[in-house]
Amino acid sequence: MSTLLRLATAGSVDDGKSTLVGRLLYDSKSVLADQLDAVERVSRDRGLVATDLALLTDGLRAEREQGITIDVAYRYFATANRSFILADCPGHVQYTRNTVTGASTADVVVLLIDARKGLLEQTRRHLAVASLLRVPHVIVAVNKIDLVGFDGDVYAAHAAAVTAAATDLGLADVRTIPVSALDGDNVVDRSTRTPWYDGPSLLELLEEIPAALDVADEAFRLPVQLVLRPQGAARDVRHRDYRGYAGQIASGVVRVGDAVVALPSGRTSTVVGIDTADGELAEAFAPQSVALRLADDLDIARGDLLAAVVDAPVPTRDLEATIAWLSDRVLLPGTRVLVKHTTRTVQAVVRDIVGRLDLDTAEITPADQLGLNDIGQVRLRLASPVAAEEYVISRRTGAFLLIDAHDGGTLAAGMVGEPLAEARCPQRRPAQYAI
Amino acid sequence: MSLAVPVPVRRLTQLQALESEAIHIFREVGAEFERPVLLFSGGKDSVVMLHLAVKAFWPGPVPFPVLHVDTGHNFPEVLAYRDAEVARLGLRLEVARVQDYLDDGRLRARADGTRNPLQTLPLLDAIAEHSFDAVFGGGRRDEEKARAKERIYSLRDEFGQWDPRNQRPELWNLYNGRHDVGEHVRVFPLSNWTELDIWRYIAAEQIALPGLYYAHDREVFQRDGMWLGVGPHSLPRKGEPVVTRRVRYRTVGDMSCTGAVESDAAGVDDVVVEVAASRITERGATRADDRMSEAAMEDRKKEGYF
Ligand SMILES: Nc1nc2c(ncn2[C@@H]2O[C@H](COP(=O)(O)OP(=O)(O)O)[C@@H](O)[C@H]2O)c(=O)[nH]1
Q1: In what order do the strands lie in the sheet with A73-78?
Q2: Are A260 and A296 in contact (CB under 8 A)?
Q3: Is B16 touching A (CB cutoff 8 A)?
Q4: How far is the centre of ligand 1, averaged over its atoms, from the C-alpha of A52 (Å)?
Q5: Same-domain check for residues A26 and A149
Q6: What superfamily in CATH does domain B14-196+296-303 come from?
Q7: Where does the Tr-type G domain start and stop, copy by copy (chain A) (predicted)?
């Protein structure tokens, strides 16, 4: 039984990210002969002696022409027990935009540093983004270890610095690995040239990392996507009176017989059926897509949240939030936007900009506007309530988009709560965060 | 009764996770768009896509029609399959015909005879004619490097064009489908599936496919290193002897340029084994038109191709 792991890469330009990804794909045998032929041909055309595996991650024409990567690309590789979706995030220009995007869905961030340089400001920023987006695991690959003569002391010093920085930022699970992406040391197979390192290779680590938090520790949440009510159109007459609330479980477990509350209305009912096209279930868990039947005919529509009655979120029209501003436009207080939270989209106004997060120091400095790639703390006032929770509690019910009501563009990635609150106030970290 | 309470393993398999993600995407589009349509050719990816759509809206019907952009160079058994599926599920089928465009001169036949690239215009016209605002496509990111950069929701302007440098960031599972009148969104629910995932899913769900995906004896001839089946739209030229081989198709499309591979994989489990062991991508193996240039797909996609 194979499981799925989503990872995102991060690193500064020239740290060897493309080479590492190419190496992972190649050594895990996910590169097929015709793709390799193409890369070998291009390598020869460019007068290279060896095949440049970095070319495997080549994307668009403009990227080839300019020799840079512009946008996140998705790659796929698999081992016997696990399939991987890799969000390959370029390290520059749109860097926050890309790493935030990749990190938003990632179970693991693989961050590269150059063994000759060690921890840079950029590294700290990448760690901060991983912490901000609450990525459960971070692996720091100390690359180009061949260029420091496979020196275990150099590695140990970098590993200690990275681990300290990560802990400061509230990251619970950070591991380091010495690698040479170019030669393949510790990427797929363990290297004999790093005798002072007795840990797993990168791929071994990726295979053993838990794919997700234990859903049993989470509270049940299901944002309603749509109400399935086929009436006369039901393909089976027995379903003429069917009424199911369809959605993907955002967190936790639900069982037939559970009491649930519909938010924002606050009305409660009992689950009498959990349906899929393949049959009824006694229980379901995140991230399954199901339809729930309830004992009572409540007025429930798309955008409502079904939640366990205990500790259900309190719907609110005021959000204190962290946003990663992804637009070229400048954000000023008073700007009107749309907030898309789970399956609900509401109008909102940015009441205040509290400050801007300095990713190097993890401090918030006062600001009265935000620009492209800024991460800031804002207060939003919503036209109608949403059942939001702190992002540290849930990466689903704590996340939202800001959308330009006029041109429809995505303006910002939003997370309910203060930026890096865990880093500044460790006791706020929920228990299930540590693994 | 045993005292030890078994701890349930609450973890989805990879295929279950991909299925759940796709169902979520279908339901989002079903809820937020007014006139979606699903591109359905009878090819395996579109078949899997339709299967997932059926699941997403069960016990209701699939709440949108399907559209086939017909090259006119079809495998007859694929057309028969298409029509049977549409009838079985009670769907409305729209067909946009490349042949109509060639007949009245809106399109000109290409020198190489290939019709796959000619599908863009009929597709865009059909989208405009029916005011479709969301178009489900079976594209997968593992297929090709331009596709690797494609979003799950891919906004197209009023000319159907894709601007790869100006895509909306796609965060979490929050999809932004806002578009202006005349624009539409291409939606790719299978973005994160690989060819092998598709086949494993077909096996697990016992999904019926057109027979040519499985090994059969066929009259074929060799061109550009590929086996092409003999048919009304793909006739051997001089020096291309016809032989009978045991083959199957990895993709189906324009018959004149879609190659068969020699294979003994007669059932779905054999195909899974074969695909898992294959060292060549399906496009590399069987699509003459995709081998043209490094950026062939990117250019086509920018113009509004699937
Ligand atoms: N010696 C050595 N060179 C490396 C290693 N990894 C990458 N490089 C080289 O570093 C340069 C930048 O690598 P690339 O993968 O393009 O970096 P990216 O910008 O992070 O994608 C290239 O010349 C690579 O060959 C390594 O482990 N050892």
Answers
A1: A73-78, A82-88, A3-10, A108-114, A137-143, A174-178
A2: no
A3: yes
A4: 10
A5: yes
A6: HUPs (3.40.50.620)
A7: 2-214
At which residue do the structure tokens 């991650």 appear?
A: A57
Per residue in B130-183, pLDDT (tens digit) is 999 999 999 999 887 778 888 999 999 888 888 877 789 999 999 999 999 999
**What's the first-to-final CA gap in chain A, in angstroms?**
23
Q: From the CA of B66, how many Å to the nearest CA of chain A?
A: 17
Q: What is the pLDDT of residues B37-46, one digit of tens each?
A: 999 999 999 9
Residues in contact with ligand 1 (CB, 6 Å cut-off): A 11, 13-19, 54, 143-144, 146-147, 180-182
- Does A431 reside within a domain? no
CA-CA distance, A148 to A97, in Å (whole number)? 32
Determine contact: B133 vs chain A, CB below 8 A: no
ipTM: 0.92
Map tokens 């869905």 to a residue: A105
Q: Give the nearest ligand 1 atom to A183 CA.
A: 27
Instruction: Report the residue of A213, A410, A415, A416 to disrupt the B interface, i.e. the one with the largest count of B CBs within 10 Å.
Output: A410
The pTM of this model reads: 0.92
CATH number at residue A9: 3.40.50.300
Distance between A286 CA and the closest CA of chain B, angstroms: 8
Q: Give the total number of structural domains in chain A.
A: 3
Q: Could B10 and A228 be called an inter-chain contact, meaning their C-beta atoms sit closer than 8 Å?
A: no
Q: How far apart are CA A12 and CA B234, in angstroms?
A: 51
Atom 19, ligand 1: residue with shortest CA distance: A14
Rounded to a whole number of angstroms, the distance from the CA of A34 to the nearest CA of chain B is 6
Tell me, yes or no, whether A241 and A226 share the same domain: yes
- Find residue B134's DSSP bridge partners: B36, B185
Q: Write the residue with the smallest CA distance to atom 9 of ligand 1.
A: A16
- Using the CB atoms, write b or e for A196-235: b if 16+ within 10 Å: ebeeebbbbbbbebebbbebeebbbbbbbbbebbbeeebe
- Give the residue numbers spanning the domain of A97: 4-212
